[in-house]
């Protein structure tokens, strides 16, 4: 029987982070160790929320760890659940908490120690749940496997149908909850797929991903640091804005007060050039536009200096460990002349964005007296921002 996995399925993620494991060579549990600028747990949270289908995240923690976990997560939201002595007990506690908090159609049960989760793995798991109650990511075993007899090699093992199992493991929520409730408490289980199978259901294997490997040893963390440091994505965003020229207004343009007989009217100080740059940066971040962050209807932005908006956009980039590589701005107007103010604008924009001057380009053009800009009714600005962001898998 096929059931459609419609987009309105409620998908909840359960991150298991209750372990005290410190084989990674540090005193703190590995889910709280940092890779790059943030904790392993925060990376796992980001990877799950980056997949648009996940609507809520529950995290199973060791007793009394809520404060530490929240400080590692910053403003990310999650429901915290206190774990148990065993992994199985911790997952059970998490599933019961999800049931109490509105339930779910699908649950993704994930180890915090696998912080780099490609969205494509989640897509494969969800697709597989159209045909089964459970699905898990797995990779074939490439190395030759042997048994050992003390220090001696013993018989080889046929690896043809052996796989390395990863997480997240995906399940129909009600089914895995029932399977956990029905599990013989005197036995332990290494994972949830095993519990589902014991309950009489098939589990589909989907292709896992090398980047999902579990962080266990110190060298795993070193490798993750290197990957994070080198895996950067270039993002380009564009912004466009227009404001009307009106009498009795100051002309703020590119963060500089320009002497002119009229000024720009509209949202805040109506600095059309800075607004275009803000939108270019937000575009590169795929994070809405200036109006969604600073609604024109909100009286607190009336007359506000636009450098605040640009500083805000800069901080959004920094929060994501990003870097502003370049901004190219074109101001479109008949008057005033931009040339005499170009260097001041470049310097002011570079100062607000906290980047070197050679990353900021300011250009200007007229429209040969055509259109609203040509008739001196308003000024338009276009900007392109190039950002470098850490690659999210
Ligand atoms: Mg504007």
Q: What report would you give on this structure?
A:
The structure is a single chain. The chain folds into two domains: 11-230, Alpha-Beta Complex (Spore Coat Polysaccharide Biosynthesis Protein SpsA, Chain A), CATH 3.90.550.10; 232-390, 60s Ribosomal Protein L30, Chain: A (2-Layer Sandwich), CATH 3.30.1330. It contains twelve helices and 19 strands. It has helices at residues 40-50, 66-73, 87-100, 119-128, 173-182, 192-198, 218-230, 272-285, 290-293, 307-319, 342-353, 371-374, and strands at 11-17, 34-35, 38-39, 54-61, 79-82, 106-111, 134-140, 145-149, 152-157, 163-165, 169-172, 203-207, 232-246, 252-253, 256-257, 263-265, 323-332, 360-365, 378-390. The strands form five sheets. Strands 1, 4, 5, 6, 7, 10, 11 and 12 form an eight-stranded mixed β-sheet that branches. A five-stranded mixed β-sheet has the order 16-13-19-17-18. Helix 2 (66-73) links the parallel strand 4 (54-61) and strand 5. Helix 3 crosses helix 5, helix 5 packs across helix 6 (192-198) and helix 8 (272-285) packs parallel to helix 10 (307-319). The longest helix is centred in the N-terminal third of the chain and has 14 residues, at 87-100. The chain is elongated, with a radius of gyration of 27 Å. Magnesium ion binds next to strand 13 and helix 8.
Q: Main sheet?
A: 8 strands, mixed
CATH H-level superfamily of the largest domain = Spore Coat Polysaccharide Biosynthesis Protein SpsA, Chain A
Question: Percentage of helical residues?
Answer: 25-40%
Work out the number of β strands. 19
β-strand percent reads 25-35%
Number of domains: 2
Inertia-based shape: elongated
* Distance between the first and last residues' Cα: 33 Å
How large is the radius of gyration? 27 Å
The distinct ligands, each listed once, are:
magnesium ion
- Taking pLDDT < 50 over at least 5 consecutive residues as the criterion, the unreliable ranges are none
**What is the CATH T-level topology of the largest domain?**
Spore Coat Polysaccharide Biosynthesis Protein SpsA, Chain A
In round numbers, the mean pLDDT is: 92
Secondary-structure class:
alpha/beta
CATH architecture classification name of the largest domain: Alpha-Beta Complex
Q: Class of the largest domain, according to the CATH hierarchy?
A: Alpha Beta
Number of helices: 12
